[in-house]
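Training component of the fellowship. As part of building independent skills, the fellow (R.M.) carried out the full modelling exercise for a liganded target. The chosen ligand was flavin-adenine dinucleotide. The inputs are recorded below so that the supervisory panel can assess the work.
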Amino acid sequence: MGRRAPKKILILGAGFAGIYAFFELHGRYHKDPSVSLRLISATDYFLFTPLLHEVATGGVSQENVAFDIYSIAPCCLDFVKARVESVDTRAKSVKTTVGEFEYDYLVYALGSTTNFFGLPPAAQKRVLPLKTLADARVIKARLVGLFKNGEMPHVVVVGGGPTGVEVVAEAHEYIEELMKTFRILKAPHALTLVHAGSRLLPNFSAELGYEAAQVLKKRGVEIVANDRVVDVGRDEVILASGRRLSANVVIWAAGVKAHPAPFNPAVETDAKGRIIVTESLYLKNDAHVFIVGDAAALSDVPMTAQAAVAMGRAAGDNIARDIEREPMKIFSYWHKGDMFSLGQWFAGAEIGGWPFFGHFAWWLWRTTYLSKVIGFRNKIKVMVDWTLNIFLPRDIGI
Ligand SMILES: Cc1cc2nc3c(=O)[nH]c(=O)nc-3n(C[C@H](O)[C@H](O)[C@H](O)COP(=O)(O)OP(=O)(O)OC[C@H]3O[C@@H](n4cnc5c(N)ncnc54)[C@H](O)[C@@H]3O)c2cc1C
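Fellow's submitted model of the complex:
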């Protein structure tokens, strides 16, 4: 009798959810010929998004947040660099830009994309989102480019959540440093943060939102609350209230939505386009297809790296359980807390319901995120970047 064909597990996406599903399954099966594990992703690096705003503002080098898949994945990696085009759950196959792949178990972890909230297409082209490594490079190039052309930046950041707050704080420090680098003593520049809500950081306690607003205002950032950007011209931003703000850099950090689900037959999605999953993270009618990370809609599990890691691990564990003919587990999400940084020396954190703000929170933010960077070598590189920033001007190279 011939040997049975190995069970094929296919993981789509090498972000937080996909890579941790891979780690979980690789740990169990890398020496087991009865299971084959393949990872497919459009990028051959893992992007550590929590430090992306620092790449956009010269604080951390781009190679220190984009870790090559081959350097972080353990031995015997079967990796295919390709874009996923469609998933046929009846045929159990995935169509990609380099061909079709069959599976017995699928982990779908393609993440999310920028949500422009109905901004006209022409205006979408004028704003600079902060979602990918290329986005961060473009923002940095634009800021540095203005100084090289002798123009002063009029920056509008859209979005009062953690990403908007973090990027406006870092942009402030970067602009101050660029002024020194380009020997500009005093010149009019402006930084404005526009957000639709009544207060900053709606996911944090009101106290932290207030503290963050005070720090930003002290640094000269204008905060426009209860207003939305409805259009963007060549050198201005138009708000729903009718107000116009002069702007030559518009950074869009207003939120994300899931990619359109490429499933055949179609799957059920929520208002953010996320695919509705069961409590064990698989599709309602298909216990062999797991949806994890930003792509998955499950009660109040947030679209964060923290949740994506937990979901990726849990999906990996449930696949292993199914293979071993053990009952799958219900995914229960334990939220450890949230943090945001406010440039050098300041941050806010909420852990176990306790708010922290200031230097201690900044230390907490840095040590926590450093511990989450994958790989010892990468941790050291990020630490070196941060240490250099204390003593030297930030990088202006593209
Ligand atoms: C600027 C920024 C800062 C953030 N800061 C924090 C933070 O401080 N803390 C926190 O918890 N969360 C943070 N987040 C949110 C966090 O990044 C996401 O929740 C998390 O990345 C979701 O993980 P994921 O695996 O679902 O998606 P992702 O990490 O986005 O991974 C998706 C993967 O799929 C690949 N992919 C996408 N489309 C295709 C396709 N068609 N074909 C093949 N491959 C594809 C991508 O290349 C990528 O490898 C931040 C997000 C941003 C944008």
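The panel noted the following from the submitted structure. Residues 13-18, 41-43, 49-50, 52-53, 83-84, 109-111, 130-131, 163, 259, 293-295, 303-306, 308 surround flavin-adenine dinucleotide (CB under 6 Å). The radius of gyration is 22 Å.
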